Automatic annotation (TrEMBL):
<feature type="binding site">
    <location>
        <begin position="381"/>
        <end position="385"/>
    </location>
    <ligand>
        <name>substrate</name>
    </ligand>
</feature>
<dbReference type="GO" id="GO:0046872">
    <property type="term" value="F:metal ion binding"/>
</dbReference>
<feature type="binding site">
    <location>
        <begin position="101"/>
        <end position="103"/>
    </location>
    <ligand>
        <name>substrate</name>
    </ligand>
</feature>
<dbReference type="InterPro" id="IPR015813">
    <property type="entry name" value="Pyrv/PenolPyrv_kinase-like_dom"/>
</dbReference>
<keyword id="KW-0479">Metal-binding</keyword>
<dbReference type="GO" id="GO:0004451">
    <property type="term" value="F:isocitrate lyase activity"/>
</dbReference>
<feature type="binding site">
    <location>
        <position position="260"/>
    </location>
    <ligand>
        <name>substrate</name>
    </ligand>
</feature>
<feature type="binding site">
    <location>
        <position position="452"/>
    </location>
    <ligand>
        <name>substrate</name>
    </ligand>
</feature>
<keyword id="KW-0456">Lyase</keyword>
<dbReference type="Pfam" id="PF00463">
    <property type="entry name" value="ICL"/>
</dbReference>
<protein>
    <recommendedName>
        <fullName>Isocitrate lyase</fullName>
    </recommendedName>
</protein>
<dbReference type="InterPro" id="IPR040442">
    <property type="entry name" value="Pyrv_kinase-like_dom_sf"/>
</dbReference>
<dbReference type="InterPro" id="IPR039556">
    <property type="entry name" value="ICL/PEPM"/>
</dbReference>
<dbReference type="GO" id="GO:0019752">
    <property type="term" value="P:carboxylic acid metabolic process"/>
</dbReference>
<feature type="binding site">
    <location>
        <position position="184"/>
    </location>
    <ligand>
        <name>Mg(2+)</name>
    </ligand>
</feature>
<feature type="active site" description="Proton acceptor">
    <location>
        <position position="222"/>
    </location>
</feature>
<keyword id="KW-0460">Magnesium</keyword>
Length: 531
């Protein structure tokens, strides 16, 4: 017996046990409402999606072409429409996630208004957005199932038994829009206890994967800006532990921790860790510092710190703000150490914040990490902060030049110029861009590709296009031609915005509750019937 029919029978038996008091309850309506509310808590979602991520990670280990992807979403509706589009165009939501970007929370969701990516926004805004995203994804399920229920009623009325069975099978095998969210906790919003408390809120809202970075929390900067300050490994491990304890306390044993390193672009640290023995983790971290040799007491000023390196005294270079500098050219070595240390201390996935999208550069670091951790995998930020066009045109230029190909017609520094758009080099660069995710996953261990804030840019671009025409000579045509007509012809569900907002679900519920006396919003006078 199908699950749907089983739920109907169970509801019927329960109604019968009430001795007539529940005779106004229709068992099939109970089954429908249960199907539309599969996930009753955020923890249900976190446990379900954590299992999906673990299965996807195992599948990627076997076949590197099975990478996963996501887009950053700053509102529940954006996340909903994204997953509906993925399912409609590609037939499945498998290996498609959502990303929750701290940058977009700061820029779009703070009560202070738009803020830079410096952890100044309310920490509660992060779990609130997770909850909102899943509310909208669950509503997408409810809407699609509601349409199947109406189709089922019509098939029964038409006496089409074959169609009835097909629809029951579709209901039983319905693929949810609820997918994993990788959620950005920045640098933990405080000390390790603060990290633990916020992690709990995020997990309770539904997060199965939490991404945390090794920047200093109160000096947090966007990963693609200057002035980044990293913390010693001991501090970062404590926060990884805090996230793991939160997962375990809440029974999400498969919870995923993404450890991000910003060391490639960070030249500063806020403190010098205490070494317990030569060559330990603290000593290794300290060995990367920029120092001056101390020959005598005269080399040391009031308040200076002195450390011992390889048997000799050195004075770490300290800035006027008290921060310490790393030696130039040590970024990649620090990244490799960060990643190996994180994976050995409880992290599941890595995130290396780079300054450009370059498969060779990423692979160079990942291959070093894999020498110690063979199954090391990356979450990679396909960042809008990169000028992708210029980066890949320059990469092709450099490759061609190394091959001995004539590149004299191109100005490397000016390759963004539109005069090159139809050139052979531009076409090749676009091919490299198109294949970046496939190549990165095959050669550089990238399990998950994300774009942090694409929907920030798409919202700006589409609004600019509409405003240009609507407030100009095109007037209403700008909306009709470029928005509504496109929605209709592309079959977007949101063109029927009343249905998308839940009007039809609400009408059905009213009928469940009040029968023929229900006052419904639909019917022949509903203008959306024009669609």
């Amino acid at each position: 017996m199908s699950n749907y029919m089983k739920d109907i029978e169970e509801a019927a038996a329960l109604r019968k046990s009430q001795g007539g008091k529940w005779d106004h309850i229709t068992p099939e309506y109970v089954a429908r409402m249960r199907a539309q509310n599969r996930f009753q808590t955020g923890l249900d979602i976190a446990r379900y999606t954590a299992k999906i991520m673990r299965e996807d990670m195992a599948e990627y280990d076997k076949d590197h072409s099975k990478y996963t992807q996501s887009l950053g979403c700053w509102h529940g509706f954006i996340g909903q429409q994204k997953m509906m589009a993925v399912k409609r165009h590609h037939g499945t939501t498998k290996r498609s996630y959502l990303y929750l970007s701290g940058w977009m929370v700061a820029a779009m969701r703070s009560e202070f208004g738009p803020l830079p990516d410096q952890s100044m926004h309310e920490k509660t805004a992060v779990p609130s957005l997770i909850e909102e995203l899943y509310t909208f994804l669950k509503q997408a399920d409810a809407r699609e199932l509601n349409h199947l229920f109406h189709d089922l009623d019509a098939a029964r009325e038409a006496g089409d038994d074959k169609k009835v069975q097909e629809l029951i099978d579709k209901i039983d095998n319905f693929e949810t829009h609820v997918v994993p969210i990788i959620a950005d906790i920045d640098a933990g919003f405080g000390n390790e206890e603060a990290t633990y408390l916020l992690s709990k809120k995020m997990i309770e809202a539904g997060a199965c994967a939490i991404q945390i970075e090794n920047q200093v929390s109160d000096a947090k900067q966007c990963g693609h800006q200057a002035g980044k300050v990293t913390c010693p490994h001991e501090d970062f491990i404590a926060k990884i532990n805090a996230v793991r304890y939160a997962f375990l306390e809440l029974g999400v044993e498969d919870g995923v921790i993404v450890a991000r390193t910003d060391s490639l672009g960070a030249g500063l640290t806020h403190k010098i860790p205490v070494s317990q023995e030569p060559g330990d983790l603290a000593a290794t971290y300290t060995s990367f510092l920029k120092t001056e040799p101390v020959k005598s007491a005269e080399d040391v000023q009031e308040g200076d710190m002195v450390i011992k390196k390889k048997g000799e005294l050195h004075k770490p270079m300290r800035l006027p703000n008290g921060l310490y500098e790393f030696q130039e050219g040590t970024g990649e070595d620090r990244v490799v150490l960060d990643c190996i240390t994180s994976l050995k201390n409880g992290a599941d996935l890595l995130w290396i914040e780079t300054e450009k999208p370059h498969v060779g550069q990423i692979a160079g670091m990942v291959n070093r990490i894999k020498e110690e951790i063979p199954d090391a995998k990356l979450v990679y930020n396909n960042s809008p902060s990169f000028n992708w066009t210029l980066n890949f045109r320059q990469q092709v230029f450099d490759a061609w030049k190394e091959e001995g190909k004539d590149v004299s017609q191109y100005d490397r520094a000016d390759l963004m110029n539109s005069k090159y758009d139809d050139s052979e080099l531009a076409a090749e660069a676009d091919r490299w861009t198109q294949n970046f995710q496939k190549d990165g996953s095959k050669h550089a261990g990238i399990f998950h590709h994300l774009i942090t804030l694409p929907t920030y840019h798409t919202a700006a671009l589409s609004t600019d296009n509409l405003a240009k025409g609507y407030f100009g000579e095109e007037g209403m045509l700008a909306y009709v031609r470029d928005v509504q007509r496109q929605e209709i012809r592309k079959g977007l569900a949101c063109v029927k915005h009343q249905d998308m907002a839940g009007s039809n679900i609400g009408d059905d519920h009213k009928e469940y509750f009040a029968g023929e006396a229900a006052l419904k919003a639909g019917g022949k006078d509903n203008t959306m019937n024009q669609f």
